């Protein structure tokens, strides 16, 4: 049971280049999330998904796109990278609350992160 | 919208001393509350969570947190710090259905 994995671990891009970050979870979680972590700003939600084929915007969605074609995978895309997107990106997943009646609000499980630098 | 405030970006303690990390939330309706820990170059790991079952919540590694509605607070404590507790700690509050809002984090430094 690998939990939440992220690919790649590190990446350096030039301004204007594109890339896709892959998140995979093997816990059969319904919900998946993408966050970015910047010094002094904590974690901010970029996009999230409440199920296969559905996505929604979070707090800071501009410049990013996502897709959830399979339940276990959640992809984050940067179409034209900018230096402001230099950050550490974390993926997370969680159960649908109905799966655990004693815990109406389930914890999010995090991946190890992807460190992205845009030059 | 929900907001979470963590007082002090850095907290320094000596090994064996009390650890107190502060967290306040903004909503008038008590949310679900979480403390996560992040060790260097790793993802976030859940320490404990408050889901209205009990106001004093015990977590892993000897940490606990007390929910105080009157103070809109959920401070994290540990009676005796250990060197291995050095990490960054994040408080988070629920917003809507299954979303979390995170504080800006507090880095705990433990000196021998």
Counted by DSSP, the helix tally of chain B is 0
Instruction: Report the C-alpha radius of gyration of chain A, rounded.
Output: 14 Å
Average pLDDT of chain A, rounded to a whole number, is: 91
* Basic shape of chain A: globular
Short structural summary:
The complex is a heterodimer of chains A (119) and B (112). Chain A has 119 residues and is mainly beta.
Describe this structure in words.
- The complex is a heterodimer of chains A (119) and B (112).
- Chain A is built from no helices and 11 strands.
- Chain A is mainly beta.
- Chain B has no helices and 12 strands.
- In chain B, strand 5 and strand 6 form a beta hairpin.
- Chain B is globular, with a radius of gyration of 13 Å.
- Chain B starts with a strand and ends with a strand.
- The interface between A and B is medium-sized, with 27 and 23 residues.
Ordered list of secondary-structure elements with their pairings:
The complex is a heterodimer of chains A (119) and B (112).
Chain A: E1 4-7, E2 10-13, E3 19-25, E4 31-38, E5 42-51, E6 54-57, E7 65-67, E8 73-78, E9 87-94, E10 109-110, E11 114-118
Parallel strand pairs in A: 2-11
Antiparallel strand pairs in A: 1-3, 3-8, 4-5, 4-9, 5-6, 7-8, 9-10, 9-11
Chain B: E1 4-5, E2 10-14, E3 19-21, E4 24-25, E5 33-38, E6 44-50, E7 56-58, E8 64-68, E9 73-78, E10 87-95, E11 99-102, E12 106-111
Parallel strand pairs in B: 2-12
Antiparallel strand pairs in B: 1-4, 3-9, 5-6, 5-10, 7-8, 8-9, 10-11, 10-12
Keywords:
heterodimer; A: 119 residues; mainly beta; seven-stranded mixed beta sheet; four-stranded antiparallel beta sheet; 11 strands; globular; B: 112 residues; six-stranded mixed beta sheet; 52% strand
């Amino acid at each position: 049971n690998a939990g939440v994995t992220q690919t790649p671990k590190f990446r350096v891009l030039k301004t204007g280049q594109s890339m896709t970050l892959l998140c995979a979870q093997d816990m059969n979680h319904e919900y998946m999330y993408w966050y970015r972590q910047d010094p002094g700003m904590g974690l901010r939600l970029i996009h999230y998904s409440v199920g296969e084929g559905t996505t929604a915007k979070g707090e800071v969605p501009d410049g990013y796109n996502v897709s959830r074609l399979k339940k276990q995978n959640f992809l984050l895309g940067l179409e034209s990278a900018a230096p402001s997107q230099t950050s550490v990106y974390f993926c997370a997943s969680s159960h649908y609350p109905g799966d655990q009646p004693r815990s109406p609000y389930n914890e999010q499980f995090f991946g190890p992160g992807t460190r992205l630098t845009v030059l | 919208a929900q907001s979470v405030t963590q007082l002090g970006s850095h907290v320094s303690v000596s090994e064996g001393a009390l650890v107190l990390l502060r967290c306040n939330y903004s909503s008038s309706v008590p949310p679900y509350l979480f403390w996560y820990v992040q060790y260097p170059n790793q993802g976030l790991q859940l320490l404990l969570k408050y889901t209205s079952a009990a106001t004093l919540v015990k977590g892993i590694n000897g940490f606990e947190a007390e929910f105080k509605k009157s103070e809109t607070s959920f401070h994290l404590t540990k009676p005796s710090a250990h060197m291995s507790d050095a990490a960054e700690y994040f408080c988070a509050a629920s917003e809507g259905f299954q979303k979390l809002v995170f504080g800006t984090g507090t880095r705990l430094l433990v000196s021998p």
